[in-house]
Amino acid sequence: MLAARAAEPATPSVALAAALIDGLCDAVWLVDPDYRVLAANAAAGRLIGLPASTLLGRHVLDLLVMPEDRCFWQEVDDGGEACLDSQTLLRRIDGSTLPVLRQVQPVGWGGRCAYLVMLRDLSEQRRVENELEERLAELRATLESTADGILVIDLDGHVRTFNQTFARLWRLPPELAARPDDDELFDWMRQQVAEPLAYMRRLAQLDAAGAQATADTFGLKDGTVVERVSLPQLRRGEPVGRVFSFRDITERIEASRRIDSLAHTDALTGVANRQVLMDRLQFALARARREHAPCAVLAIDLDHFKHVNDSFGHGIGDRVLVEVAQRLTGSLREVDQVARLGSDDFTLLLNQADAATAETAARRVLGAMQRPFEVDGLRFNVTCSIGIALPLPDTDTPDDLLRRAGIALEEVKASGRGHFRFHRAADDQDGERLRSRLQLDHAMRQALPRGEFRLHYQPQVDIADGRLLGAEALIRWTDAQLGEVSPARFIPVAEESGFIVAIGDWVLRQALAQAARWYGDGADLVVSVNVSPLQFQQPGFVEGVAQVLAQAGLPGERLELELTESLLVRDAEETLQRLQALAALGVRLAIDDFGTGYSSLGYLKRFPISRLKIDRSFIKGLPGDPSDAGIVQAIVQLGRALRLEVIAEGVETDAQRAFLHGLGAQQYQGFLCAPALEVEAFNARVGLPAGAAAQWPAVRRVR
């Protein structure tokens, strides 16, 4: 039918219709019964991009490009007088298409049916809809990507939306998550909380909060702890609903609890740590002063616990510490406190305890520790030592009380371990000595980089003719506050703290540098340097000696290292290897203070030792003291038998020198020859002119 009809010529009524539709805002066509445009207004021309007159006579199917358009106009044919609406695409002159809303209204036309077609541009509407869809998609993606469960409700309490995190957190059944019903959803949530009544009261408070933001926490029946934040949803400044966010904070709460536990308990044993002990001790002392309720502190140290770790490993050692904590806890009353301060150090705080109560507790602890420990089939014993301190009236602080208990503990360990001891006033002198040693150690560590140490040299001479054969390097120290500090005072402290290694390295470098200068001046002498056992045992000691010799440009034969007897019996095989390596460098080796320690004749025979040095304590009584004379004679004879040189130190009189010479000793050093001197004084005393390179003369003996 559409193809069979032909276009009719315009009539005056068409002009009238064109005039009528031209004033309309929407694009309008007047279409004849054959679906050709009879009239079009200006808006229709602008919509298609051509003057309205160019549309006249064109078939509607040339202008509308949807495949469904042919069916649509067939439906118009069949619809008679009905007004039809549809959306379609309009082809513009530039080839683009435009979405439009099409409304077709049948009108009478010369006894036949024509059509008034109104077209409305949907481009802006589509743009807004697309933009809205994009924003909704972004919002949905945002809601689903957040770690929080989100629930949105309107002012009437109806559910607007929620995300999948919310569904998982509240464990919604699949059917409820797919088709949420407001009442069923809220009832499900109420069933999941651990305290439904408190939960409902809180909801009522949220309703009363209005536009205010709120936050709270609650628990679910499965143990989950939930943090809930509620914010008003506003539109143009007016509330339209409320947004709830739900966050699972169970792990955060547990972590906080663990952190709090670690802050107040020992991580391994579970007993109190130092912080808790100090707080409890502060309270106990305050109560003791206020209510005259005494307390006591027991400092406990496991005897030789290092042997457990070294023998069985730290894993078993840790399990022993856990059982020790349990035994200590079981030995106390409920009002008392067990604390672990570190490693195998435990402290007990006894409340309302006098000396008798403290002694009873100490005996219970010793009894509990006497039972053998059984771990992984291993059975062994670990004893403990206990120091006890009672507070002094109105003077003690927690630190003071712990310090005095610690001093008493050290006295127990020094006297054999395995028992207890109360702190006594006389023990404070030991504490003062300990503080003095700490201060001295600190001063030493400052002195080395400040250059406060210096070396003096004491001549070592032939006992027969007084020829200079060598010099012993001896360290000296003058402190700005302490004054001249004797080596007998600071060397033991350095050995105990380990700082002797740094001091020994400095002495070796300085002594070899001076020995190199003397060697360059033609002086034929050996420089002796003392080596502590700790320094000797350091990895790379031999390599270090070789490096310093090379840097100084000094032959190894010009260096003698003086070692203690105790070093020889420590790990004999490794000691032998190191001594042989030093001997291979040409370095001479001597045993210092021989006779004051323990030496095995077998070691002396095996080790590459070249000289024995008689300690000054045996020289002082010569020649009148028969005991000293007998000891010195035995040492000289031992040296002769082992083909070792013997040198005596501390020789102060001609009688001592003559007696030693008569026994067969080869060398000596001491005030009879000269004290330890600075380099300049040393050169002057032995008669070496400044800058000379001649043979050194015999040393004058001076009183």
TrEMBL record:
Keyword Coiled coil applies: yes
Record-given protein name: Diguanylate cyclase/phosphodiesterase with PAS/PAC sensor(S)
Sequence ranges assigned to domain PAC in this UniProt record: 84-134
Record-annotated PAS domain positions: 13-70, 135-175
GO BP: regulation of DNA-templated transcription
InterPro entries the record matches: Biofilm_reg_signaling, EAL_dom, EAL_sf, GGDEF_dom, Nucleotide_cyclase, PAS, PAS-assoc_C, PAS-like_dom_sf
Pfam families named in the record: EAL (PF00563), GGDEF (PF00990), PAS (PF00989), PAS_4 (PF08448)
Domain EAL: 437-690
Domain GGDEF: 293-425
Keyword Cell membrane annotated: no
Coiled coil region boundaries: 122-149
Key words of the record: Coiled coil
